[in-house]
Each structure stands twice: as structure tokens, then as C-alpha cells.
Specification:
183 residues; 6-stranded antiparallel β-sheet; two-stranded parallel sheet
């Protein structure tokens, strides 16, 4: 029952409903002033015990875009890390893939009863723009990933970056996208 979300739903929702609502709410004079989501970054940390390629494949399945392995820039003896060793995977989503992932994320968040929602405290600034970062403890949280091994749970970090220049605008944008926010 893995049903793909229509990848244009959030894009159409943004253009038809969110832009006019936020434009009226915050008294914007131009559609381009209305904040938008610019990118979503997904990352997963890997260590020696985990199967690297299967985790990269899981991240690729979730994102519907090829994940890239990240390598250590320098050696750190305390962590048993060597320069050039694969220590994670990441993928950055933009445009249509980003909207498709937002749909999957919304379905996953609404289906998980134990998920408390996104915390407003975790909103931070990245230069002039606002973003929110949060983690998911288990990748089987998404419908595309089946819980193959219940003992091994791989987590994922998700960062949603926006073009907002104000925290209130960003919270209003997330609420308009129907992502649960807690204060």
C-alpha cells in the first residue's frame, strides 16, 4: 500500500492557496515577497557496523533522488575515523522532488501517533533565511521503507530551508503547508 503522493499537490497548494493567504495576512504587495521553501536536505550518519550501501539506497528511496556518500575530511582518532572514509550520506531536494517529499513527510507525520510535531524552538537562521531541522529515529517511519530488521534502526536528519526573513513568516508558511508545529 505504498501510494505515491501527487508531486504537484504541494506546488499547486502553494500557488493557489498559500500565496494569496500569506499575501493578505502579511500585507505583501508582490507575489515574490511571499516566503517559500527553497530546499530540503536529508542526511544520515553511517558507521562501520552499518551496511553503508543499503542505507544509501534507503535514503535514495525516500528522497526519490540519488543520495551521495559523504567522506571524512580529516582523521579523528577518538572516533576511529580515517580521512576519506565514508561517514554518511546526504541528498538535497529542490523543486518537484522537494514537493513530492513534503507530501510523503506530511503523510508520515500524520500517520505516526507518537510524533509530537515540529518544535518552534528548533527554527534557526541560516544567514538571512530561516530553516528548521529535526530528526527521525527510524527510516521505516516512511511508507516506502519496510521494517526489514526491527533491531537495527537508522535515523535521518531533515532540514527544511525557506526564503523567509522573519520567524513569524516561516511558522505561518509551515502551518499553511499543514506540517504540525508545537510552540
Amino acid at each position: 500500500m505504498t501510494e505515491k503522493i501527487n508531486n504537484t499537490y504541494f506546488k499547486d497548494l502553494y500557488k493557489i492557496k498559500i500565496i494569496p493567504d500569506l499575501k493578505e495576512k502579511f500585507k505583501f504587495t508582490n507575489d515574490l515577497q511571499v516566503p517559500s521553501i527553497t530546499k530540503i536536505s536529508l542526511s544520515i550518519g553511517l558507521n562501520k557496523r552499518r551496511d553503508t550501501q543499503s542505507n544509501i539506497d534507503k535514503l535514495t528511496t525516500i528522497a526519490s533522488q540519488k543520495a551521495v556518500a559523504t567522506k571524512a575530511k580529516k582523521s579523528i582518532a577518538q572516533f576511529g575515523l580515517r580521512e576519506g572514509q565514508i561517514n554518511g550520506a546526504m541528498v538535497t531536494l529542490r523543486k518537484n522532488q522537494m514537493y513530492m517529499f513534503l507530501g510523503q513527510l506530511q503523510v508520515a507525520l500524520l500517520n505516526d501517533r507518537s510524533w509530537p510535531g515540529l518544535f518552534a524552538k528548533s527554527i534557526n537562521t541560516a544567514g538571512k533565511h530561516y530553516s528548521i531541522s529535526f530528526g527521525i529515529k527510524d527510516l521505516s517511519f516512511f511508507n516506502d521503507i519496510k521494517a526489514e530488521n526491527a533491531l537495527v534502526k537508522e535515523g535521518c536528519n531533515i532540514t527544511i530551508v525557506s526564503s523567509c526573513r522573519n520567524k513569524d513568516h516561516f511558522v505561518a508558511l509551515l502551518e499553511a503547508l499543514e506540517l504540525p508545529i508545537r510552540s
